[in-house]
Design goal:
- The chain is of the alpha/beta class and about 350 residues long.
- The protein contains 12 helices and 14 strands.
- The chain has helices at about 40-50, 70-75, 90-100, 105-120, 135-145, 165-180, 190-195, 215-220, 235-245, 275-285, 300-310, 320-345; strands spanning about 1-10, 15-25, 30-35, 55-60, 65, 75-80, 155, 185, 200-205, 210-215, 225-235, 250-260, 260-270, 290-295.
- The strands form 3 sheets. A 6-stranded mixed β-sheet has the order 6-7-8-3-9-10, sandwiched between helices. A 4-stranded antiparallel β-sheet has the order 2-1-4-5. A 4-stranded antiparallel β-sheet has the order 12-13-11-14, covered by helices on one side.
- The protein starts with a strand and ends with a helix.
C-alpha cells in the first residue's frame, strides 16, 4: 500500500498542495483529477521523490520516501507529463540507459527491454532516433521506461497526451492489464477515460482534496438531480401546469414547441428519479396527454467534478505550516531526550 499523509508544498509564499492525505491500495487504479493548477503534478512529483515536500510523509510499501529514498524509489515507475526522453538517442539505446540507471541486472536487461517494447508496441521503432518520432511514440517510449524493472507502483501523469484515439484505447487497455501486478495512480483531464479504467478517484482543487471515493458513489452522493427529457402531444401551458405542480419536480429547465401541438420539456427531478418519473408519466397520461418520447440524463463524473471544484476551500497559512513543523520537531526532541534519560538510567 502507498500512504500519503498531510502532504503540503509551498513555493515561496504560494501554497500549491494543502495538507492532503489518501492511500493507494494494492492492485488498484486510482484516478487523480483536478483542473489546471490544482496541484496534481506537484503532488505526483512529491510522491515520486523528485520534489521535496514542505510537510508530510509519503510511504511506499513501508518505505518513507524522505528517510529511505532508494528503497522507496525501487518500487516506483514514473511517467511525468513531459516524458524524460533524450531526443538524440535511439529508442533501444535510451531504454538500455534507463535500465542501467535503475540498476537492472545486466543479464536481465535485454529481456526487460524487449518486454516493455512489445507491451507499448514500439519494437518497430527501436532503432530510430527519438527526435524523429511522433509525439505519440515519444509518449510510449516514456511509458516504456516507467515499466522497466517491473515496479510495484506506477505514477502516470497524463499518459495519453498526444495520442490518437486508437492509441488512447490501446494505452487504456495496457493500464487495465497492469492492475493485475501493480498499483497505479493515474492523472488525466479526460473524465471519460478516468471513468473507464479507475477503481477510485481523488478530486483535488487549489491544492485541497475535495473528494475520495468510487465513481459510482460520487455520482450517487454528490449529485441528487436527474433530468428527464419528454416530447409530448398536448397544450403547452396545460402540460406545464401538471409538471410544475407535481411533487418531486424541481424545475423545468427548458421547454419549447417543436411543431403544431408537439412540445419538448427538460425537467429537473429531485429525489428518487425512477419513482418520480414513473408517477409523472402516469399523471400526464391520466390527464389525456400523449407521450411521444422520453429519455433520462443521469449525473456523471463530469457533473460531480464541476460541482466539487466550484466549492470554496479553506487554505492553511504558511505560519500554520511552520508552527506544525516546529511542534513536530519539539515532540521529536522531547522523545529523544526521554530515550536518552532511560538509557542513562
Amino acid at each position: 500500500m502507498i500512504t500519503i499523509s498531510n502532504l503540503t508544498k509551498y513555493y515561496g509564499k504560494n501554497l500549491a498542495v494543502n495538507n492532503i492525505s489518501f492511500t493507494i491500495n494494492e492492485n488498484e487504479i486510482l484516478g487523480f483529477l483536478g483542473p489546471n493548477g490544482a496541484g496534481k503534478s506537484t503532488t505526483m512529483n512529491m510522491i515520486s521523490g523528485y520534489l521535496p515536500m514542505t510537510k508530510g510523509t509519503v510511504t511506499i510499501y513501508g518505505n518513507d520516501i524522505s528517510k529511505k529514498p532508494m528503497d522507496a524509489k525501487k518500487c516506483i515507475g514514473y511517467l511525468p507529463e513531459i516524458p524524460p526522453v533524450y531526443p538524440d538517442m535511439k529508442v533501444k539505446e535510451y531504454l538500455k540507459f534507463c535500465a542501467g540507471l535503475k540498476k537492472i541486472p545486466v543479464s536481465k536487461r535485454s529481456e526487460q527491454i524487449d518486454y516493455v517494447m512489445r507491451k507499448l508496441k514500439i519494437t518497430d521503432v527501436s532503432n530510430r532516433l527519438i527526435k524523429h518520432l511522433s509525439k505519440g511514440y515519444r509518449q510510449r517510449v516514456g511509458f516504456a521506461q516507467a515499466l522497466l524493472g517491473n515496479p510495484k507502483f506506477l505514477i502516470l501523469d497524463e499518459p495519453t497526451v498526444g495520442l490518437d484515439p486508437e492509441q488512447v484505447a490501446e494505452v487504456r487497455e495496457i493500464i487495465k492489464e497492469l492492475k493485475k501486478d501493480h498499483s497505479v495512480i493515474f492523472s488525466s483531464h479526460i473524465l471519460s477515460e478516468v471513468s473507464a479504467i479507475c477503481d477510485r478517484v481523488v478530486i483535488i482543487n487549489k491544492g485541497v482534496i475535495r473528494a475520495i471515493d468510487t465513481i459510482e458513489n460520487l455520482e450517487k452522493n454528490f449529485t441528487s438531480n436527474f433530468i428527464i427529457n419528454i416530447k409530448i402531444d398536448g397544450d403547452k401551458q396545460k402540460v406545464e401546469e401538471v409538471i410544475k405542480s407535481f411533487d418531486g419536480v424541481k424545475e423545468i429547465s427548458e421547454s419549447r414547441t417543436e411543431e403544431g401541438n408537439i412540445n419538448f420539456f427538460s425537467i429537473v427531478l429531485d429525489g428518487d428519479a425512477d419513482t418520480v418519473r414513473t408517477k409523472l408519466m402516469s399523471e400526464l397520461i391520466a390527464k389525456g396527454f400523449s407521450i411521444i418520447e422520453i429519455s433520462t440524463e443521469k449525473p456523471n463524473l463530469e457533473d460531480v467534478f464541476i460541482k466539487l471544484i466550484n466549492q470554496p476551500v479553506k487554505k492553511e497559512t504558511l505560519s500554520d505550516i511552520l508552527e506544525s513543523i516546529s511542534d513536530e520537531s519539539d515532540k521529536t526532541s522531547d522523545n529523544d531526550s526521554a530515550n536518552n534519560e532511560k538509557e542513562e538510567n
